[in-house]
Automatic annotation (TrEMBL):
<dbReference type="GO" id="GO:0005829">
    <property type="term" value="C:cytosol"/>
</dbReference>
<dbReference type="InterPro" id="IPR006683">
    <property type="entry name" value="Thioestr_dom"/>
</dbReference>
<dbReference type="Pfam" id="PF03061">
    <property type="entry name" value="4HBT"/>
</dbReference>
<dbReference type="GO" id="GO:0061522">
    <property type="term" value="F:1,4-dihydroxy-2-naphthoyl-CoA thioesterase activity"/>
</dbReference>
<dbReference type="InterPro" id="IPR003736">
    <property type="entry name" value="PAAI_dom"/>
</dbReference>
<keyword id="KW-0378">Hydrolase</keyword>
<protein>
    <submittedName>
        <fullName>PaaI family thioesterase</fullName>
    </submittedName>
</protein>
<feature type="domain" description="Thioesterase">
    <location>
        <begin position="48"/>
        <end position="124"/>
    </location>
</feature>
<dbReference type="InterPro" id="IPR029069">
    <property type="entry name" value="HotDog_dom_sf"/>
</dbReference>
Length: 134
């Protein structure tokens, strides 16, 4: 998938509030996808750090792109599970969201996502399971 295809996919399948995160493709291959989450002060909670809900939505979105790339295009799917570990607070700077498909089955897809801060340090790590619909 090229940048135009990814942006069209995001515009078509994401909920309006997720689109406001402004996620942009960095790279997409059959093995995975990396998106950039641009920094915005509006993403921080009262503690001054980007809130976990933002990271969970960004991770979920990057995996949808990664699965779509692995499949050669979008296919209806839904998240079955997402487990995330918040390892480092992010107060400023863009975040890279790198999703990788671990196993692409007939109905289930397993993946992992690493979110890194502007210094390249891991802020969050997530594992996911999705189900594909016919």
């Amino acid at each position: 998938m090229d940048e135009t295809e990814v942006l069209e996919l995001l515009d078509r399948v994401l909920a309006p509030w997720v689109r406001t995160l402004g996620l942009k493709p960095v790279s997409v291959t059959e093995e995975g996808a990396t998106l950039r989450l641009p920094f915005s002060g509006e993403l921080r909670h009262s503690g001054g750090v980007i809130c976990g809900q933002v990271f969970m939505a960004a991770a979920d979105t990057a995996m949808v792109v990664a699965i779509s790339a692995a499949l050669g295009g979008f296919k209806p799917m839904t998240t079955v599970s997402q487990n995330i570990s918040f390892m480092r607070a992010v107060r400023k700077g863009d975040v890279l969201v790198a999703a990788r498909v671990l196993r692409l089955g007939r109905n289930l897809v397993f993946g992992e996502i690493e979110l890194t801060d502007e210094d390249g340090k891991t802020a969050c790590h997530a594992t996911t399971t999705y189900t594909l619909f016919d």
